[in-house]
Amino acid sequence: MALRSKVRRPKIVLSLVAMSLLFPALAACSKDDGPEPMLDAFLAGWRSGTFDKVTFVSPTGQGVAADTVKTELRALEGVFRDTPPTLTKQTPAVSEGLATTQIKVAQPLPDKTTWEYTTTVRMTKAKDTWQVVWEPSIVHEKLTKGDELAVRRLAPTRAGVFDGKGEEIVKPRPVVVIGVEPRKVTDIDALVKDLTPIFASGAYDVSADDLAKLPARVKDAKPDALVEIVTLRREVYEPIRDRLRALMDKGVAFREEDRLLSPTRTFARALLGTVGPVTKEIMDSKPGAYQVGDQAGLGGIQRTYDDRLRGVAGQSVVSSRKASDGTVQDTVLYQVEDKDGQKLQLAIDTKTQIAAEKALATVKQRSAMVAIRISDGQLVAVANSGPDNLAFTAQVPPGSTFKAVSAYGLLDAGKVTANQIVPCPKFFTVEGRQFKNSNFLELGNVAFHTDFAKSCNTAFASLAPQLGPDGLVNAGMALGLGQTWDLGVPAFTGRVSAGGSATELAAATFGQGQTIVSPVAMAGAAAAIARGQWKQPVLLLDPAAAKPAADGPALKPTTLDPLRAMMREVVTAGTATALKDTPGGAVYGKTGTAEYDNNPAHTHAWFIGWQGDIAFAVFVENGIKPSETAVPVTESFLRNLR
Fold this sequence. Notes:
Layout: E1 18-20, H1 36-48, E2 56-57, E3 63-64, H2 66-77, E4 86-90, E5 93-95, E6 98-108, E7 114-126, E8 129-133, E9 148-154, E10 161-162, E11 168-180, H3 188-195, H4 208-212, H5 214-220, E12 227-233, H6 234-237, H7 241-245, E13 252-261, H8 269-272, E14 275-277, H9 280-285, E15 295-297, H10 300-304, H11 306-310, E16 314-322, E17 328-336, E18 344-346, H12 350-360, E19 367-373, E20 379-384, H13 390-393, H14 403-412, E21 427-430, E22 433-436, H15 448-454, H16 457-467, H17 471-478, H18 502-509, H19 519-531, E23 540-542, H20 557-573, E24 587-595, E25 603-611, E26 614-620, H21 630-641
Parallel strand pairs: 2-8, 10-18
Antiparallel strand pairs: 1-4, 2-3, 4-6, 5-6, 6-7, 7-8, 9-16, 10-11, 11-12, 11-13, 14-15, 16-17, 18-23, 19-20, 19-26, 21-22, 24-25, 25-26
Helix pairs in contact: 12-21, 14-16, 14-17, 14-20, 15-20, 16-18
C-alpha cells in the first residue's frame, strides 16, 4: 500500500556509491542529519535485533513499536534468524521528505554459500525526525506478513556402481525395516522372548546381545518411533514374514523402502562397502556436506568415492506460509539445482565374482580370492569371506606359492634348469638353522622340476646363494611384487625380503622369512607368468586410476616355458592333483603352506595359478593344509564358472 502524503512522489535516481554496513545504533537525527543515521541504526538493528534508537511507521503512516518490528522481523527471517546477513547500503535518494535506499543483502546459507539479493528500505520525515517505513518486503520483496523464510534441501540421486559389462551392480532394491513401535508394546520382555527363536539361526545379523538391548532402546525412544531391529532384503524377509507379522499386536512394526544394494548380501561386500544413513563421524569429517538422514558410503569403494557417487545437493530458499488446513505452501525465492552423482564402473565380472564367493563359502576360516583376466589385466573377482578386504590388504607370508617367484629368478639368471638335479633331503642346515619339508618329505636326488612340483623346501634353501642378495627382490619386481600400484583403492603389493642373512635368504626362497604379500599381488604374479609380461591389475574402468604402474618388460620365453611346465606338473603329479580333471582346460599353479608365527602347526593355506584366460590366488587364513582348503576352493571356483 502506498504511503499517504500531500506531496507528489518524486522520480528516484539511485547513487552507485556503496558502503559496507557495520554501524552502531545511533541517536535520533537532527534537522541537518538527513536519513542516513536512522537508516544505519535500522540496519544495525536488523543484524543485532535491537531497535532502541529507531522510529518506525506503517505504510499508512501509523506509528509501529520497535518491539513489534523486532518480533515480526524475527518471524519473517525464519531459518535465518540466528545467521544475520551482511548488509550493504547505497546512498539514499531523498526528495521532499521521502527517502528510498537500495540494500544489498548477503545471506549465509546452510551449505556455506551465500544468497545475494537487493531489497528496498523506505523512510519518511516527520518534523525533524526520519522514520523507517516498516513492511515485510524490506526483508525480501516477495514477503508479506505471516510468511517465513525457509531452506528446502534438494537431494541428488546417488549414482550406481556398474560391472565390467556395464550392468548395474549396486542399485535400488526393496528392503523391509523390522522394528518395534514403543506405544504398542505391552510386555517388552515377552516380545524379546518371541523374537529370539525367529532370529536364532544367525542368518539375519541379529544377535542375542542385540535383542537383550532392545528393552532399554524401546524405553528411551519416542512412543511413535520405529526402534529398528534389522533391515532385510525382501527375499530374505519373506521366509520369516508370517512369524513376524503375527507379533504386530505386541509391537512389531515394519517399513518398506528401497536401498542401494548389490545383487546378494555378500557380493563383493568388503570391496564395495555399503550405503546407509550417514554417521556422526562422517558428518564431522566434512562439516556442512551432509544432513542427518542423508545416505552415505559406509565403507569400501562406496566410502572412498562417496563424493562422486552421491552428487551435490541443491537447495531452495522459500517463503513458507501455513494454510488454514495446516498444509504448508512454499514460494521459491532462490534455488541452486542439485547435481546427481556420477556412476562408477569396475572391471568386476558378476558371474566370476559369484563363482568366487560360492567357492569361499565352502571353508569356515576367513579367506579371500582374486581373479584376473590374463588378456587385459582386469580384476574380474575380488571376494572375501568376511567384512575385511583381505584380498587387497592382507600382509601375510606367501609360503611355497613364492617358489614360483624364486624359480623364475633362478631360471632367468641361468642358475638352474628344470631338469637339473637338485637334491631334496629331509633336512637342510644354514648357519646352524635346520630347515625341513612338510611332513618330513624326502625325495633324494631329483630334477628341479620335481622339487617344485612336490614343493621341496630344502632344495630351494640350498639354491638360495645362487640368487645373491638382490635376486629375489629383482624376481619379485619383474612379477609386480613391491611395486607402486594405483588400483583406485588401497592395496598391498608385497614386500620381498632383501639384504638379510644367509638364513633369511634361505627361508625367503620358499616364502617365509620377512617376505609378505597379499592375494591380489600373488594373483598379479601368476597372471604375469601366464601372460609373459607383468601388467598392473585394473579395478576401475570409470574413472580410470590416476597413476597406474607402467607395464613391465616382456619376460623371456626361455624362462617362462620351463616355469609354466613346472606349474602344470604341480597339478598333474604334484601337490594339487585334485585339480587334474577340473573342467575347462589345463590348470597351472602352485600350492603354499605359510607359517605365520612360531608354532609350525599354525599355517595359512594358498593356491595360485591360472586356467585359460583367468589367473587367480586363493588364501585361507589358518587353512593348515592347502590340499584340504585352498585347492578345493580353487576347484569349486573353476567348476562354478562353467
